[in-house]
């Protein structure tokens, strides 16, 4: 579900509240009346819009009325937008910005620049779009006017989202929400939330807060924000369908469809028709689903909504296959592919090759079926590789950003120390005669303090370096596992594996920046890692995580990533070779007093001696963990220790390995 919400489109031209007042005259009253007509009818009647534009141009031949002239330029551009004349719309928004600047009307300039950015965004000219959004932000910084900021940040977020820079898009939307909340601008606040919701829905569905979603829907109902209401109904209906509440989903899609029809939003009608078609298909009501699709295609073609046409043809091909109408399935798949190739949206249309192959095969066209199947496989691999590349690029960017932050912090600290030394030297020079003894004492204490600080800083830096070593080591092992998993399983399962891996990588990167994380975060990371390994090893082992009742997952904090390397050693080198018929890993966390936590990892593997000699392997992760413990103790002066031993029975047989870690624990309030 990818629809974007532009502030100037949803607000409309007529909703702008002028910030300047001028004395009214007969001429200005006539201009205001013509502007009101152009605002209300400029999107519905092209001939009347042209007539109103000509009349207003005649009025301004002799009239000096800056507010009316700028309103005219904006309404004129908005009318061109409504009739899909994007170049003309962009031109008149830019002209409006230039005129507003010449008159030093900064609120108008920012508004025009923001709308120009939105027009270039619709034209997919992302460089030009970002240029105008940045110019609008610059105007705000220079003048202090912030009325247009929420919509500008929404526009920037959409650009980032189109470019695949999802974290930057989320930041822009959150910034828009924050500013609009402070301005009590509910419409912009909801628009920003909706755009943020599109990212969550497409990429992080588990992060959607349903309570927040329904609360926002009720807010829109209360304040009659009908366009936003029908959009939110798409998401609530989708959530209901995913949880098996099909009747609820159907009612919400139909409610959204009715509202979209009443307010004349064809694009929103199409999204609800897509949802109704998919829901009908799941319920086995194939003919009803095809009727929804046919209506959706009529509307999408009328409004030139190409992405929606691609999705609808894809649905039509799938349903036609299910009911045995192979000719229609082939026809729909071919239309989907043609439109998809014209827009480059292969992440959507590549599936149509699979439907095309199945349709041709059912019709006996085996050669054509094989050709389509080969294209499907090739495109599937391209899409999967691009997704993997994007995820790895994001990880690399975060690594580089962290390194730069550390370098900046280090340089800032060095500059501060140098400045402090210079101040001390000046003080000592001026007070040397009368304070020589005190100066010597202060100098001695200062040197001692500097040595202690540097010693502690070096230990902290060593600790950060060791954590940063763990991340590439862990990523290397995980990517090797992913490669193996992809060779053994299909692209669909590998895609699910990559999604789980991406979530785990995000947790690892976030935790690598801090000294302590909550117990709940550590447990959640371990669970994600073990679930990932369960997928990899085909559920060939079981695990349990036990937490002492005296520990609180939110308030008790411990250093991150100490248990994972030993779990990895167990899985890679010992677990599947032991005497036990059941492969099992157990992690226990118990409090030891108020300042320590014991973390115990036990497995049913081959044991230490066999594990080491059979593999000829010494775990780099274990070595780094030992060094981390030493560096952590040096930097924080808090207790930490480790013991690794075999588990044996009464007969002296090795039943596995037991690792006991004692780590410091802090009681903090998580943000």
SSE order and pairing:
Elements: H1 7-11, H2 26-41, H3 46-59, H4 66-82, H5 86-102, H6 106-122, H7 126-143, H8 149-162, H9 166-182, H10 186-203, H11 210-222, H12 226-242, H13 246-262, H14 266-282, H15 286-302, H16 306-322, H17 326-343, H18 346-362, H19 366-431, H20 436-488, H21 491-511, E1 517-518, H22 519-536, E2 542-547, E3 556-558, H23 564-573, E4 584-592, E5 596-603, H24 608-615, H25 620-636, E6 641-648, E7 654-664, E8 666-667
Parallel strand pairs: 2-4
Antiparallel strand pairs: 1-3, 3-8, 4-5, 5-7, 6-7
Helix pairs in contact: 2-3, 2-4, 4-5, 5-6, 6-7, 6-8, 7-8, 8-9, 8-10, 9-10, 10-12, 11-12, 12-13, 12-14, 13-14, 14-15, 14-16, 15-16, 16-17, 16-18, 17-18, 18-19, 19-21, 20-21, 20-25, 21-22
What does this structure look like?
This protein has 25 helices and eight strands. The chain is α+β, with helices and mostly antiparallel strands and 671 residues long. Among the domains are: 1-208, Serine Threonine Protein Phosphatase 5, Tetratricopeptide repeat; 391-513, no CATH class; 539-667, Heat Shock Protein 90. It has a five-stranded mixed sheet, covered by helices on one side. Strands 1-3-8 form a three-stranded antiparallel sheet. Helix 10 runs parallel beside helix 12 and helix 14 runs parallel beside helix 16. The longest helix is centred in the middle third of the chain and has 66 residues, at 366-431.
């Amino acid at each position: 579900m990818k629809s974007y919400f532009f502030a100037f489109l949803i607000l409309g031209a007529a909703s702008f509240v002028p910030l300047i007042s001028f004395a009214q005259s007969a001429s200005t009253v006539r201009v205001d009346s013509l502007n009101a007509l152009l605002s209300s009818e400029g999107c519905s009647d092209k001939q009347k819009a042209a007539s109103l534009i000509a009349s207003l141009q005649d009025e301004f031949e002799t009239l000096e009325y800056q507010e009316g002239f700028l309103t005219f330029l904006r309404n004129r551009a908005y009318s061109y937008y409504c009739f899909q004349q994007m170049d003309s719309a962009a031109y008149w928004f830019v002209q409006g910005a230039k005129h507003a600047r010449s008159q030093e009307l900064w609120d108008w300039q920012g508004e025009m620049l923001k709308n120009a950015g939105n027009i270039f965004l619709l034209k997919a000219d992302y460089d030009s779009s970002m240029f105008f959004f940045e110019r609008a932000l610059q105007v705000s910084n220079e003048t202090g006017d912030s009325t247009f900021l929420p919509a500008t940040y929404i526009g920037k977020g959409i650009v980032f989202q189109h470019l695949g820079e999802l974290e930057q898009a989320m930041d822009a939307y959150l910034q828009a929400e924050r500013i609009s909340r402070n301005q009590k601008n509910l419409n912009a606040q909801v628009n920003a939330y909706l755009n943020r919701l599109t990212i969550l829905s497409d990429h992080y569905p588990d992060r959607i807060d349903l309570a927040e979603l329904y609360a926002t829907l009720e807010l829109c109902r209360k304040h009659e924000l009908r366009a936003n209401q029908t959009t939110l109904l798409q998401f609530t209906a989708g959530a209901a369908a995913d949880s098996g509440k099909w009747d609820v989903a159907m009612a919400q899609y139909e409610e959204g469809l009715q509202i979209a029809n009443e307010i004349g939003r064809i694009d929103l009608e199409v999204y609800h028709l897509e949802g109704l078609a998919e829901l009908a298909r799941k319920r086995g009501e194939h003919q009803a689903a095809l009727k929804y699709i046919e209506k959706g295609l009529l509307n999408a073609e009328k409004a030139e909504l190409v992405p929606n046409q691609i999705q609808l043809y894809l649905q039509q091909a799938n349903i036609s296959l299910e009911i045995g109408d192979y000719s229609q399935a082939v026809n729909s798949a071919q239309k989907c592919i043609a439109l998809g190739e014209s827009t480059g949206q292969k992440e959507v249309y590549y599936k149509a090759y699979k439907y095309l192959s199945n349709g041709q095969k059912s019709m006996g066209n085996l050669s054509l079926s094989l050709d389509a199947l080969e294209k499907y496989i090739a495109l599937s691999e391209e899409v999967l590789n691009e997704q993997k590349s994007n995820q790895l690029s994001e990880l690399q960017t975060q690594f580089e950003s962290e390194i730069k932050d550390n370098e900046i912090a280090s340089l800032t600290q060095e500059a501060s120390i140098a400045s402090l030394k210079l101040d001390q030297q000046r003080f000592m020079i001026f007070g040397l005669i009368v304070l020589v003894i005190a100066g010597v004492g202060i100098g001695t204490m200062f040197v001692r303090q500097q040595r202690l600080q540097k010693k502690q800083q070096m230990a902290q830096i060593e600790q950060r370096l060791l954590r940063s070593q763990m991340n590439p080591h862990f990523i290397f092992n995980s990517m090797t596992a992913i490669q193996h998993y992809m060779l053994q399983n299909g692209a669909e399962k590998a895609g699910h594996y990559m999604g789980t891996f991406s979530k785990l990588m995000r947790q690892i990167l976030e935790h690598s920046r801090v000294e302590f994380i909550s117990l709940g975060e550590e447990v959640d990371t371990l669970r994600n890692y073990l679930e990932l390994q369960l997928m990899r090893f085909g559920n060939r082992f079981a695990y349990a995580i036990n937490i002492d009742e005296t520990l609180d997952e939110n308030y008790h904090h411990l250093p991150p990533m100490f248990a994972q390397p030993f779990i990895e050693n167990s899985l890679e080198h010992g677990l599947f070779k032991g005497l036990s018929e059941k492969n099992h890993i157990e992690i226990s966390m118990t409090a030891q007093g108020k300042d320590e936590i014991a973390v115990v990892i036990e497995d049913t593997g081959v044991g230490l001696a066999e594990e080491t000699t059979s593999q000829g392997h010494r775990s780099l992760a274990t070595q780094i963990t030992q060094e981390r413990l030493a560096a952590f103790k040096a930097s924080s002066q808090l207790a930490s220790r480790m013991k690794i031993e075999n588990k044996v029975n009464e007969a002296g047989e090795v039943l596995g390995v037991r690792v006991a870690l004692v780590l410091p624990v802090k009681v903090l309030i998580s943000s």
